[in-house]
Design a protein that fits this description.
The chain has ten helices and eight strands. It has 265 residues and is of the alpha/beta class. InterPro entries: AB_hydrolase_1, AB_hydrolase_fold, AB_hydrolase_sf. It comes from Halorubellus litoreus.
Length: 265
């Protein structure tokens, strides 16, 4: 059953579904919290906590002035505030997708959580990051009044890097299109943050981490998932055959089965 937020902070907005150990679901950069709708029925053993990230429907008047260096720390602060609103004995799991996965890992460096699940964290390999210019190309299109084209560039590079026969037809069937066009500026800020993020040799996360990836996603994200796995002191790496970067919403039963097996241990 869906329940409203349990906090009085207007910037901390979330839904609760079910009972049990809380699993905090952090969505990525191209969809609001409704991204997790296909996943929720498979998390019936847990209490799913589904927040709305800053800039994706919450009241953040300062976002327009936010620099790319402040985006990830701001997301981490948001997770801290969210977990502070949960009961003291919550023992939460952080489950993030893409930029939400990177946020979950960074937040867990100084949070006491039971575990972290990271599906293809938004981390760029060093050689790929040097030439990355998606944020600039998107920003140019937004400035030119071509918001839809800006978001399409993101879809082409991140969701369909190998191309798709009829992108417009695919977008017409995409549940979050065209509403996600409203997120264009936030996605530009997020991409700038991703392009500047450098993976350290070691990520100081005490909690066990499950790093997930799919064989049909972008090669650079699969490479980065393995690098993140290697930088974590307590990590398991699982690759799902035939699944893309949209794994949690595309194959929720398989993804949750991997998560459930990990958490049971």
């Amino acid at each position: 059953m869906q329940q409203p937020s349990a906090t009085d902070d207007p910037e901390i907005v979330y839904e609760r579904h079910g009972d049990g150990q809380p699993v905090v679901l952090l969505h990525g950069g191209m969809a609001p919290r409704e991204y997790w709708t296909p996943v929720l029925p498979h998390l019936d053993r847990y209490r799913a906590v589904v927040p709305q990230r800053p800039g994706f429907g919450t009241c953040r008047d300062d976002l327009a002035e936010t620099s790319s260096d402040e985006v990830l720390p701001g997301e981490v602060d948001y997770v801290h505030a969210l977990l502070d609103s949960l009961p003291d004995d919550a023992n939460p799991v952080l489950f993030g997708h893409s930029f939400g996965a990177l946020t979950a890992i960074e937040a867990a460096t100084d949070l006491d959580v039971a575990a972290v699940v990271a599906y293809e964290p938004a981390v760029l390999p060093a050689d790929y990051r040097e030439d990355a210019d998606l944020a600039r190309r998107m920003a140019d299109l937004v400035d030119a009044g071509q918001r839809r084209e800006a978001v399409k560039r993101y879809v082409e590079q991140v969701l369909h890097p190998d191309g798709v026969d009829d992108l417009d037809a695919w977008l017409a069937d995409w549940p979050v299109w065209p509403e996600c066009v409203d997120l264009a500026e936030e996605v530009v800020r997020m991409n700038r943050a991703v392009e500047r993020y450098e993976l350290p040799e070691r990520l100081d996360v005490d909690a066990p981490v499950l790093v997930l990836t799919g064989t049909d996603g972008p090669d650079f994200l699969r490479e980065s998932a393995r690098s993140v796995h290697g930088a974590l002191p307590r990590s398991r790496f699982v690759e799902l055959h035939g699944v893309s970067h949209s794994g949690p919403s595309e194959a929720p039963e398989r993804v949750v089965a991997a998560v459930d097996a990990f958490l049971r241990e």
